[in-house]
TrEMBL record:
EC number annotated for this UniProt entry: 2.6.1.16
Description of how the protein assembles with itself and partners: Homodimer.
Organism classification: Bacteria, Pseudomonadati, Bacteroidota, Bacteroidia, Bacteroidales
Keyword match Cytoplasm: yes
Reactions accelerated catalytically: D-fructose 6-phosphate + L-glutamine = D-glucosamine 6-phosphate + L-glutamate
Swiss-Prot/TrEMBL keywords: Aminotransferase, Cytoplasm, Glutamine amidotransferase, Repeat, Transferase
Gene coding for it: glmS
Name of the featured protein: Glutamine--fructose-6-phosphate aminotransferase [isomerizing]
SIS domain span: 46-185, 218-359
Highest taxon of source: Bacteria
Function: Catalyzes the first step in hexosamine metabolism, converting fructose-6P into glucosamine-6P using glutamine as a nitrogen source.
Length: 369
């Protein structure tokens, strides 16, 4: 009923707005700025298995797989351990190479996704150590793993995942930081800076949520579209994938997420004045390159919605619409950049009169193959 939605018209919007509190809960007792420390109990209890991993294999589906793509980049960057990210449904059926030197990270909001559970069992039978990142306490996947960390974001009701995604990315960030510290693969200044910034993310998320009215207005302009392209690079590439998935799931507009530089190898052929292109163009190492991708889109009359870092005046001159985010460290940008994309998908779907909490053909947890 209305009460459960906390005054919001839909669970999805309520869950989008809960994210600052969810992340505070997710980090409670785990991220301590006073002691400059990140503590995950799983890492204390199973330190040997985790720091000696020769490789991580992340298995997941849907939005959880996108979180895994961000986790891969952080673990490889900070811990210097190779990471593969696998669709659980593919992994389980293709006779994958799994050894006892592997640590498999299973990411699942529901903890019940059939393919992810099967991938966990397969990996376990082959001697891998299994670490779960789940939301639903006591669900099947956490019961099948050796250890894990809950994301603690509370029940997610909207079929399109929102707060679980940012919770998963937060746990992966804590995991990467804690492991890197144990392994000595991160400088103490980098570590301290990221811990400090991570702690500030909930406050910065609140700032991003203040953009809701602006995004609601903007969404009306784009309800006409039959296709959307989402572009990002580095840490923003999985954000582009997730933004496109949100739009597909609830508005039924076809959308594709792409690494920005790959656009020239295909999707650029689709760009004309009817094509909205959402570009994550925050101020980081890839900025100049993404800026030139925006120019390529504009040269073909595409409509650019740019997600930028506050104070950016280059992009505001060429993009059709600009959404500004507070500054943060590059690896934490996904936690902020995802929010406007969730809101954009939400408002477009609402404008089109779609059932955002229960989109057609989709299930909250897919317990069959
Ligand atoms: C379904 C849901 C998605 C979710 C995916 C994986 O498709 O609709 O929102 O991302 O399953 O679910 P899991 O519970 O394993 O994260």
């Amino acid at each position: 009923g209305q009460l459960d939605k906390g005054g919001y018209p839909h669970f999805m919007l309520k869950e989008i707005f809960e994210q600052p509190d969810c992340l505070t809960n997710c980090m409670r007792g785990r991220v301590n700025v006073d002691t400059d420390n990140v503590v995950l109990s799983a890492i204390i209890d199973y330190k040997k298995q985790l720091i000696n991993a020769k490789r991580f294999i992340i298995v997941a589906c849907g939005t959880s797989w996108h979180a895994g793509q961000i986790g891969k980049q952080m673990i490889e960057n900070f811990c210097r351990i190779p990471v593969e990210v696998e669709y659980a449904s593919e992994f389980r059926y293709r006779n994958p190479v799994i050894t006892s030197d592997d640590v498999v990270i299973a990411i699942s909001q529901s903890g019940e996704t059939a393919d992810t559970l099967a991938a966990v069992k397969l990996a376990k039978d082959n001697g891998a150590f299994i670490y779960g990142i789940c939301n639903a306490i006591g669900s099947s996947i956490p019961r099948a793993t050796n250890t894990g960390s809950y994301i603690h974001v509370g029940p997610e009701i909207g079929v399109a995942s929102t707060k679980a995604f940012t919770g998963q990315v937060t746990v992966l960030t804590m995991l990467a930081l804690a492991l890197a510290k144990e392994k000595g693969t991160i400088s103490s200044s980098d570590y301290l800076e990221i811990v400090k910034e991570l702690h500030e993310i909930p406050e910065k998320m609140k700032k991003v949520l203040e953009l809701n009215d602006r995004i609601s207005e903007l969404s009306r302009i784009f309800t006409y579209a039959h296709n959307f392209l989402y572009l990002g690079r580095g840490y923003s590439y999985p954000v582009a994938l997730e933004g496109a998935l949100k739009l597909k799931e609830i508005s039924y507009i076809h959308a594709e997420g792409y690494p920005a530089a790959e656009m020239k190898h295909g999707p650029i052929a689709l760009i004309d004045s009817d094509m909205p292109v959402v570009v994550i163009a925050t101020h980081n190492a890839m900025y100049e390159k993404v800026l030139s991708n925006i120019q390529e889109v504009k040269a073909r009359k595409g409509k650019v919605i740019a997600i930028v870092t506050e104070g950016d005046d280059n992009i505001s001159r060429i993009a059709d619409e600009v959404i500004e985010l507070p500054t943060t460290i590059e690896c934490l940008e996904p936690l902020l950049a995802t929010i406007p994309l969730q809101l954009l998908a939400y408002h477009i779907a609402v404008c089109k009169g779609k059932n955002v909490d229960q989109p057609r053909n989709l299930a909250k947890s897919v317990t069959v193959e």
